[in-house]
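Retro notes - structure team

What went well: the batch runner handled both jobs without manual restarts.
What didn't: labels got mixed up in the shared folder, which is why I'm recording both outputs here explicitly, each with its sequence directly above its tokens.

Job 1
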Amino acid sequence: MKGFCNVDPIERVREFNYVLTPGRDVGLPDDEDDFDFKERFTQLKAEFEAQLWEEAKLNALIAKSLWRVGI
């Protein structure tokens, strides 16, 4: 069943040095990266840093609120 399972002859298994990589063995096409890694990583890093700042602000707000109620 293409994309789910496959049965290969032992010669093909030997050809790949007995490495049974699921994507190759079930007949799925190799996905090509259609994006620039450095650009994408830079975007993700900026997003992560913004989330860290937001987390710090929220943590301070929570701590202040807990202090106000005496906890």
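Job 2
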Amino acid sequence: MAGGAALTALLAVAVGLRLWRIGLGLPDFLEEAIPFRLALGMTDVATGRVDWNPHHFNYPSLATYLHFLVQQTVFGIGRLLGAYPSYADYLLSYSIDPTRMVVAARWVGVICDALAVVGVVRLGERFARGAGLLAGFLVATAPILITTSHSIFCDSVMGVLAVWALERMLAWHDQGRQRDLVLASVLVGLAAGAKYPAAVLLLPMAWLIWHRRGWAGFASWAALSGVALVAFVVSTPFALLDSRAFWRDVFFEGAHAAGGHLGSVGHRSFAFHLANLTTNVGWAGALLLLASPALAVVDGRRRPGLVALWIALLGFGAPIALARIDADRYLVPVILFAAPLAAISGWILLGRLPRPGRRFAMGLGLLFLMIPVSLRGVRTAGEGADTTQLQARRWCDAHVGRDELLVQEGYAARLPSSLQVQQVRSEALYRFASPRLRARLDSVRCFHVVALPLAVSGRITSRVEPPGLPPVVWEVFAHAGELNRVFYSPALLADADYVMTSGAVRGRFEADPSRYPVECELYRLLDAKAQVIARFAARGAVIGPEIVVYRIGPRYRDALARGSELDPRWWTEAIPPGYRRRAQELLAPRESATWSATDPAAASPPAWVRSLAGLYAMRIQPFVSDMANELAALGRNEPARAFARATLALRPDDLDAGVVYSVCSGRLGRWGEAREVTARLLAAGGDREAEPALILLHARALERTGDAAGAMRELERLVARVGAGDPVGAQARHMMDRLSAPGGRRG
């Protein structure tokens, strides 16, 4: 084992580099951080009951449970100190300023990396004295490991468990203690419980057992694989208890890797990962890594361990090289095994040099190997004094008015929307929080902001239900990214005041213009016809995607050459002709497949459009609803009606769209249209919780269209149902008093 002082210094470097910017990006928090977010949601704020089923298995559950333990510890300490009287306060505080929770979660990655450094040092020292410290230095300063430790993914957890699993395998191979092999099996299972690819570590275990015991060791390997499986199930128990959800998500992730991710659909990721690996171990390290197989051939004593390291490296590296996902963090376990291989190769080569020149060669080699990597690591660790997203947020605070609408791409600024705050206020989280925390939320500056949806992986399908036949699921888009063009129609942005683009999204579209022509055309239109009023780019210690803020003005709107309202059929233009024909022929071959252009909102959509109602409700309507509600809140009634009409054209009984349409129609004096829609919604049954407000709205429409008696009947029914003490009931009572007064009809 390496000297304690040297190892301590190495750990100080590793931890120091990772803690340098541990608050990166905060208080804004835009990361995926799936295990962290799942962990926060495991406790019911009303009852305190913990739901141990994460319900999502894109990743196994070990990291989720680990973050649950960390967050419960932070909450418990905060509760003792009086900061969080309840878990509702903790979650509401997180939604306002997540800094404490996120920093605690990032410590998990820092600690995992520190333990991984120790494990890599032990691996290297098994082959050559001094090689472990060099390998540990490469890991301590690797840029990808530094950034991943901040990102609250599963990779750091998997990486440390994988390193120690292989270290224990080599300990068994060297010394023959069975407990080392059993412990290695448990660590393999736990590593797979952090992230599925770690199951590949059973392969180097098989190699080492075969090398020591021959084919007679197969039964032992099978039994140890069973031990690993038990450890995996213990760490992810709902793989068995909720097997349907488990296999659903596992198959999705398999298809995701094969089909690709937005931005890397058209190519394998080999070149991307090779370039990143070279950057993280340096050119000298990459050359030493290439020399390692040859050294394994000629060095019989070290050959079994070197082969085991290579099996582990290739087991992690080959799948990500063949996949179509350019994600830096996927390289974490590869770097953890590449570093000791490169360091061991360097030490073996130095040992073959003549003794007189060996010390000089060692110093020169260390300079070539360590200096480039350390400089990149220090530069990476020091980045993030500010971010483009935070700069954009501050700009919005200073320049975006309370009566202005901003539409933004994902990975731009973190702007709390008025709709989001309203949603939180309607949830148990708000009801069970203390008055102090509720007051903090109520004081948050809200924006009228809508985010453009972003589909990045998987397929887009639709459930088609032909009459008299079993339902079938058909593919609409082979890749989910093809759906994004729906939200990049220039007409959708005509009634916004600002549009904010993010290079994290824009760069992916503009890198493949033939695949994403609609998105790229919108960017060209914005550049040509909208005013660029702010631009934030990474430079120096500022990191993040380039963010551009456009002001939408008359030049942009005049360039659209459109009518006065949004065409409700706009989203159907993206649907492939093949799906249209196939669905129409199955559902209604004798009906017209054309949707009337004269009044599409009044005409029934063709069968192929109706078959997409579920897809529309899940994928498109949330954006349409947000636009309609934000425009209505700003008093922009005509465009709000247009967005609501797009939903009503396909789903005429939709409550949210119907209410927005009716309220805005009433503001415009079109009470007849409001009456027609509210009557249809009430006849359809509607949402029982929202029905009182709908009845009140219908009563107003009846009054305004001359049916005061009908309005009175609706109001009496409403008051009898909710009572005059209810806010809606109180409004109904006031309206009844006014209608009952001599000459009373309007007010």
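One thing worth noting from job 2: The two ends are 86 Å apart (CA to CA).
We'll revisit the folder naming next retro.
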